[in-house]
Amino acid sequence: xxxxxxxxxLSANFLNLERDVAMLNESQADWFHLDVMDGLFVPNxxxxxxxxxxxxxxxxxxxxxxxxxxxxxxxxxxxxxxxADIISIHAEACSKPLEAFxxxxxxxxxxxxxxxPETPVSxxxxxLDFVDMVLIMSVHPGFGGxxxxxxxxxxxxxxxxxxxxxxxxxxxxxxxxxxxxxxxLLIDSGADILVAGNTIFASADxxxxxxxxxxxx
Length: 217
Ligand code: DX5
Ligand code: ZN
Known about the structure:
Helices cover 31% and strands 20% of the residues. It is built from 8 helices and 8 strands. Helix 2 runs parallel beside helix 3. The model has no long low-confidence stretch (mean pLDDT 98). Zinc ion is lined by residues 8, 33, 35, 66, 175, 195.
């Protein structure tokens, strides 16, 4: 499968959200990556249901919702109702992830598990049969525009290895500090989806940057 590019709307201009959504609709972007932060799991607060719902009304592209909130199981149904196609929860934030995945899939959404930079890939092992995606954080979650943590490459390689000899498949997504310099190596290491916020939205020509990320391999 050719890799996908998922712009993170965290770096969009919220006073011109309609313009930015239209720009992404016309671009080669595959998914919209939507970062939900509660000010508890991460030291930042972003946006929630009303924004997601309005974005849902403005695009047909897949909404990839990354929940950086404590006890995400409280809100899975609401995020699905708001328009999420994929719901990813942090391993560090959820005490019963298997139940959460069951709920997400029962809602007819795809389930993702996210691990922070300091969380070892070994925590994924018992969860992999029940997810559609593994999201590997390559920065400490909470803010856009941080620099990529190089140790992430080893984690991508390790998770890619876990895919071997499995019956079920899952996608590998990388989030944080992705740029035109490291994107190729991320793909070569096994990433299927590249999330990019600052690299796209701070560039002079975001559509061109998306195209370059798409064509990097
Ligand atoms: C960070 C978020 C990311 C962020 C990525 O907590 O999960 O999705 O928006 O932004 P960049 O690509 O700027 O690092
Ligand atoms: Zn994210």
